[in-house]
Amino acid sequence: MQNHRGMMKEALAESLRSLMERYLFEKITIKQICNEAGVIRATFYNYFDDKYDCLNSIVYHDIVEGCRPFIQQNRMPEGTIGVLRTIEENRRFYRTAYNVTGQNSFEDMIRENLKILFLDYLNHHRKKGYLDEYDNDLLSGYFAECIAFHIRTFVFEKGGRRTVEQTQKMVNDLMKNSFYDFANEQS
What we know:
By secondary structure, the protein is an all-alpha fold. It has a domain at 51-177. The protein is 71% helix and 0% strand. The chain contains ten helices and no strands. Helix 4 (51-72) runs parallel beside helix 7 (106-125) and helix 7 (106-125) packs across helix 8. The longest helix has 22 residues, at 51-72. It is globular.
């Protein structure tokens, strides 16, 4: 029963993803999502509050669920590559999704889901005794902001696009170094 429930939720989310590759999010209705999935409208509300909740479910699936197995094994770089590959495969969807702005903005969804991911990682793999004055919640928010920037850049990069591997290397390089490593003056 739980597996069927998960499959139906995923089918509805994938219907929204598909529709967003053809239509503006604001123009998509719950009825269209349900028609695309082949279910009645009432079914949608068994899984989601509204289409923003459905959109957030896509982000959660792509980012958190896509990376979580690697986090559990303390393999964040491989998880980052997996997430970037998913984004690359769905670049058209992501470009359209970034047009969702305002109170329930797509960019906020990206940040919030990245924060969940980093909080999970830090709760399991944080170095003991290192800058303890900064709690995991603060750190996860900070790093979520940084990676959200990289994701947006990756999605909209034109011309000589970086590959997934080049983007992951850039993210890894920048996360391993501080601002002061790039400046002439030391803190």
